[in-house]
Design brief:
nine-stranded parallel beta sheet; seven-stranded antiparallel beta sheet; 24% strand
Length: 973
């Protein structure tokens, strides 16, 4: 059995060819440091094999380069499979791998990146992760480690045995994979200037290592105030990327390897470039500027962007220009740019990947207008990667048609975990659950977008978890991608185990995974910057109470994990990546919720309004305190990263942000009785002519408990009592004394009531001379005739999750089975259903998959159906987004989820802006229910739709204002 021992007493020789690339040597140096810190073992270089008797060695080679790989190939079977592979590596433990070496670990790459990934695979086996630096993740320490092909049955003492299978790695699923550091002020910018004196090569060495440990190979560098080719200093950052084999591109509006900020440095009346960023007015100056960018790029591993947009991410010819003008100009620009690339890069031109970004308004220029030719099919884009983009909020827009997917150059996708723009920026904490990344990026992959994936990660910090998933999905789509409906949840468990498994108990690992998912889930409901006191209703459908319960639970578990982790290294990692984002996010939303309660209670005259106002202020102070603590963490390690504005945006950007308004009540000098239901804005007080408080909750199936609030509307203590009793009702309390508010939970013994007979119970709540009559109406429904699985209404409203279907019928798409699949933990309501395969679309009900839902109606009548879906966009340019709907035996009708003038990603489209802020589309249409059992059928039509919830209301019934809507209604099980 081949093995490798690692401890402070064992010496490990490292064998490489003498002319091994400097970038590979630098990466080995990083892995060598991992080995030293984890095992105590020291590595000693041995330039070539055959230099003497070596007990054990790590042998690093690139297949087909140098004599070492040739000799390895003669002794290690299967290494020749690396020939012609892209970014793959062989990883073998072997006895006598080369002359003079008794035991060896062979890491042989098909190319530079392959060997780098293989080296970091060794680090991963030992327990290192990509988040050692960026997430303060701990490195485990094992006094004695053994890498072996088979773990022995009899193990020695404290030895850590690590099973090390020999294999040839897969090629990456997506050819180019990476991230974009963007929107980097004030956070990343302040951090890097205080730690690395700017956007320097020293800082980028940390970024590149991060990228490579996640098996990435492509980057867009920071660009708000930075010029990558100048700030290294000079070309130092580019040269470092070359050493590591990383492709460097520039963003969608930075052509020919020229950073946006570089234009401000280079332009001028006394320069050959002129002063205007206008191809119409300064054609020769811009061509010279771009040409110099290409000349400078020669010999470097670059991925130039073609085309042109306006300055500062704007339209090239302004808001009033038409498609034809822009297309004509872009064709000329792209043709000129390709000519200069061929001229100056020569033979390298064909090997240099090129990119054209179909971003924002450029989508119109690519597809063209009704009578205007677009760039689609333009010969100068042959061989160029077309970078498509979602709507900046994580929802795919137009994706390649089937006949386009094999085009030369292929397609890329620009995805966002961070965005600076309308309708409201989101840059503070992660607000994208990994299940959402899975749903959208698998869709992109299945539509043929497999050449380039790049994700905007903002400041990098606080995106460790979703970024890791995005990169893992891009590298190993076969393992994590389509068909693996629950793999995103598995990834969370794997991610937490990798980082905390050596330090945390099983229960703690589960808690950490829960905190991660819950924080992202809560932030995704409404992105923090777009939240306010008016988003979640304080009482309707218990919305404020439900959210506070979730937040309190999140804070409780977060604090429990933080306190219970014993190892300081684990506490640091938890604080850096999880504790601070969870604590700050929960606190911020509580501030908004408390403000909402403060406003409502003030309008009701409740003294508790002032308490909620104080709690709101406490949250504001806590927000500042949390930021100061994070800034001071580990001596200011991440100082600056806490600076993102995140409270009360009133604009797309942080200008005019504001704290919630606090209402302060001047209270009467004596107590006053104020009574309300916990889920209603209505309130009741003592009146000369008594107005009874009527509660009808118990008339509807499924309701077993209601909550009354007895509040003080003045100063002093309010002593209240309930005098009458009812044998069918039980009260959690019948008397009390409060200076703020008490709650009374009322339960009913429904089984004791006669069936189908409405009963009415009356009692009074009294305080001194004040008295309020309360009337409770109840009815025990006979539901024996209601079929199992049928939903019943609550006061004229049915609420069903999309996953609550009775049955489904599969469809046929291109000769294959098409079905709705459940997505657990997804979206605004926690579940969803989507048609797979993801490219499947249908016209009408023929061949379309179908879901069937059941509702029981006591009486026939007209209703309003609401379909709540993900905020998806049409996946065809200027296309539709539809579901088919049929009630009972009626004909199938088309439910259009978006209007005819809908434009995903266009901030001037109010329908789109509302959808991405509210995280849903809501389609309303009229239907008719008959008395008795009703069957609602939903048919898949356009691809990309995730149906999350169905709400049916009687025509005369209006839902109460709220953000999450009512809970599911009763379903007979």
């Amino acid at each position: 059995m081949a093995y490798l021992e690692l401890d402070g007493q064992k010496e490990i020789f490292v064998i490489m060819d003498p002319d091994t690339d400097s970038g590979i040597r630098k990466i080995w140096g990083k892995a060598e440091e991992d080995i030293r810190r984890i095992t105590g073992a020291m590595c000693r270089p041995a330039c070539q094999e055959g230099t003497g008797n070596i007990e054990q060695a790590v042998i690093v080679a690139v297949w087909g380069k140098g004599s070492l790989s040739k000799r390895l190939g003669e002794r290690i079977g299967g290494l020749d499979r690396l020939q012609g592979r892209r970014e793959a590596y062989g990883f073998y433990l072997a006895d006598h791998p080369v002359e003079g070496v008794e035991r060896g670990l062979i890491i042989c790459g098909s190319d530079k990146l392959g060997i780098i990934y293989g080296i970091f695979h060794l680090s991963e086996l030992l327990g290192a992760t990509p988040w050692t630096f960026w997430g303060d993740a701990p490195l485990p320490f094992h006094q004695h480690s053994v890498l072996c092909t088979e773990i022995p049955k009899k193990r020695e003492g404290q030895t850590c045995y690590i099973e090390c299978n020999s294999f040839i790695s897969k090629e990456p699923s997506v050819k180019y994979r990476g991230f974009f550091i963007n929107d980097e002020w004030p956070c990343f910018g302040n951090w890097t200037f205080s730690h690395y004196q700017g956007f320097t090569a020293e800082m980028y060495d940390k970024v590149f290592e991060y990228l490579l440990r996640m098996k990435g190979n492509y980057i867009w560098p920071a660009m708000w105030t930075s010029s990558f080719m100048l700030d290294g200093p000079g070309m130092a950052s580019m040269e470092l990327a070359d050493e590591y084999g990383i492709y460097v591109g520039m963003s969608h509006h930075e052509p020919c390897m020229r950073s946006s900020e570089e234009w401000d440095i280079c332009k001028g009346e006394d320069t050959p470039y002129g002063t205007q960023w206008s191809y119409v007015n300064n054609k020769e100056g811009l061509l010279r500027y771009w040409e110099d960018g290409i000349i400078r790029s020669k010999g470097h591993q670059v991925f130039p962007t073609l085309g042109m947009r306006g300055e500062r991410d704007s339209k090239m010819l302004g808001e009033d220009s038409d498609i034809e003008e822009n297309v004509r100009l872009l064709k000329e620009i792209i043709k000129k740019q390709r000519q200069m690339i061929r001229k100056h890069l020569g033979r390298d031109a064909d090997k240099t990947p090129l990119l054209f970004a179909v971003y924002k308004e450029v989508e119109d220029y690519y597809f063209g207008g009704s009578y205007q030719e677009g760039l689609n099919g333009f010969e100068e884009l042959d061989g160029v990667t077309l970078l498509l983009c979602e709507d900046n909020f994580g929802n795919m827009r137009a994706l390649p048609e089937k006949e386009e997917r094999a085009r030369s150059g292929g397609f890329g996708m620009y995805y966002h975990l961070d965005y600076h723009g309308a309708p409201v920026s989101y840059e503070w904490q992660n607000s994208t659950p990994v299940c959402r990344i899975w749903e959208q990026m698998t869709q992109a992959y299945e539509y043929g977008i497999r050449d380039l994936w790049i994700v905007n990660v903002g400041d990098l910090k606080f995106q460790e978890y979703p970024l890791g998933y995005f990169m893992e999905l891009a590298y190993d789509y076969e393992n994590w991608g389509a068909g693996c409906y629950d793999r995103s949840r598995e990834y969370t468990a794997v991610w937490v185990q990798k980082i905390f498994g050596s330090y945390a108990k099983k229960e703690q690992v589960s808690q950490i995974a829960w905190v991660l998912k819950e924080t992202a889930g809560i932030n995704s409901l409404r992105r923090p910057e777009a939240c306010s006191s008016g988003v979640y209703h304080p009482v309707h459908y218990h919305e404020g109470r439900r959210m506070l319960k979730r937040l309190n639970r999140l804070e409780e578990v977060n604090e429990e994990v933080w306190r219970s982790l014993e190892a300081e290294e684990a506490r640091e990692a938890y604080y850096s990546m999880i504790y601070y984002p969870a604590a700050a996010s929960a606190n911020l939303l509580k501030m908004h919720l408390y403000a909402g309660f403060n406003h409502l209670y003030a309008s009701q005259g409740k003294a508790m309004a002032n308490v909620y106002g104080e709690w709101m202020d406490t949250c504001i102070l806590r927000d500042e305190e949390l930021a100061r603590e994070f800034s001071a963490f580990k001596g200011g390690r991440w100082k600056g990263m806490e600076m993102a504005p995140h409270i009360g945006f009133t604009n797309w950007n942080s200008e005019d942000w504001r704290y919630p308004v606090r209402h302060v009540l001047r209270l009467p000098g004596t107590p006053r009785l104020v009574v309300s239901a916990a889920d209603s804005e209505k309130y009741y007080t003592n009146q000369y002519f008594p107005v009874p408080f009527i509660m009808e909750d118990f008339l509807y199936p499924g309701c077993r408990e209601i909550t009354l609030q007895v509040a003080n509307g003045g100063q002093g203590r309010l002593a209240w009592r309930i005098e009458e009793r009812c044998e069918y009702l039980s009260f959690s309390a019948c008397e009390g004394s409060t200076d703020m508010e008490d709650e009374i939970r009322i339960r009913i013994s429904l089984g004791r009531l006669p069936k189908e007979e409405q009963k009415e119970f009356c009692f009074h709540i009294r305080h001194g001379e004040e008295s309020l009559p309360v009337v409770i109406r109840a009815k025990r429904r006979d539901i024996t005739s209601v079929p199992r699985g049928a939903f019943m209404d609550r006061d004229g409203v049915y609420v069903l999750d999309a996953a609550d279907y009775l049955e489904q019928a599969p469809g046929i798409f291109e000769g294959h089975r098409a079905v709705f699949e459940k997505l657990e933990g997804y979206g605004k309501y926690g579940t969803g259903v989507k048609v797979f395969p993801e490219t499947a679309s249908f016209e009408g009900e023929e061949n379309a998959p179908c879901l069937v839902y059941g509702m029981w109606a006591d009486a026939a009548g007209s209703c309003r159906l609401e379909l709540h879906t993900s905020p998806a966009n049409p996946l065809r340019y200027a296309g539709s987004l539809r579901l088919g709907v049929s009630v009972n035996e009626e004909e199938v009708r088309q439910a259009y989820l978006v209007g005819g003038d809908y434009r995903g990603g266009d901030h001037t489209c109010a329908e789109w802006a509302k959808a991405v802020l509210d995280q849903e589309h809501v389609c309303r249409m009229g239907i008719t229910l008959k008395q008795g059992m009703n069957y609602l059928r939903i048919y898949g039509q356009d691809a990309g739709v995730v149906l999350e919830r169905l709400v049916i209301c009687r025509e005369e019934k209006e839902l109460l204002s709220s953000y999450l809507g009512p809970d599911k209604t009763y379903c007979r099980i």
